[in-house]
Design goal:
four-stranded antiparallel β-sheet, 8 helices, 15% strand
């Protein structure tokens, strides 16, 4: 056997082996890409379905426009829990709480309010809610106007009462009554709680409180929730979305529509 044939045989084997390795790598890459494309397409379809569910829930929320009062365990919640039972849905009021950014020092330093917020794990604070121009510090209002680059802050600033009385516990309710100078606050709180879900407007509430229906307490106490959080489970995720009540421009105490605000948040569920 001559030198050229002795040389060519190992070289050919080396070339064939190299080609085999390249082909194997390409096959692996193609297979991986196909799997990734499949996962992406599947995830994209899942996201589309989740968005469709959220859009349908938005339509459902329009029912609340016609409600004089939002109850903690009302007809709306009953219908929603039944309709979306397989999604393990949870609906919660997230605006009936103290948003410290949108309240002035007079309120936050009031003894009753300060005592309420001082309670460990009180849960009375929130990051949600509209602004009542009467109760926010001017400096904070100026900052918000600068952020939005406008003097007209509607709908962020409107006249919808800050809190839904049906979602306030005794301590929170008493603190607001004390701040607003309502006499015999503890007795009034007891009566309100005894008549839970039976008080539907400020005229009825004013009779219990012993004040006029034009009293400034009704800038705080109302019967509508302005921000709702809905959580549900789908495709291995817990989905969280916020729906907000938007008032009319001409009558900014009257709600005309519910809209989704912010992003649809997805968190992978961890089985324990």
């Amino acid at each position: 056997m001559n030198n050229s044939s002795a040389f060519s045989t190992p070289l050919a084997i080396s070339i064939i082996f190299s080609l085999f390795v390249v082909l194997l790598a390409l096959s692996f890459l193609l297979s991986t890409n196909q799997r990734l494309i499949g996962l992406y397409q599947s995830q994209n379809l899942n996201d589309i379905e989740i968005r469709q569910i959220v859009d349908e829930m938005k339509v459902d929320f329009q029912e609340l426009v016609n409600y004089e009062a939002d109850m903690e365990e009302g007809l709306f919640q009953t219908r929603m829990y039944s309709k979306y039972a397989e999604l393990n849905i949870c609906i919660e009021d997230v605006s009936t709480g103290i948003n410290k950014r949108f309240l002035n020092k007079e309120i936050l330093e009031n003894k009753a309010i300060k005592s309420l917020l001082a309670e460990e794990h009180s849960g009375y604070e929130t990051d949600y809610g509209w602004i009542n121009a009467t109760y926010i510090d001017k400096s904070e209002m100026d900052l918000i106007k600068a952020d939005f680059e406008t003097e007209d802050l509607f709908p962020l600033v409107n006249s919808i009462p800050l809190y839904n009385i049906n979602y306030m516990d005794e301590a929170f309710l008493k603190a607001v009554l004390d701040f607003c100078g309502i006499k015999n606050a503890e007795e009034k709180v007891y009566e309100i709680k005894m008549k839970k879900n039976q008080i539907h407007n400020k005229e009825e509430l004013a009779k219990i409180l012993g004040c006029s229906h034009t009293h400034h307490i009704f800038n705080f106490l109302g019967f509508k929730t302005t921000f709702w959080r809905v959580r549900f489970e789908k495709h291995g995720y817990e989905i969280s979305v916020i729906f907000a009540a938007f008032p009319e421009k001409e009558n900014d105490r009257k709600i005309y529509e519910y809209k989704m605000v912010g992003k649809i948040l997805k968190t992978a569920r961890v089985e324990i």
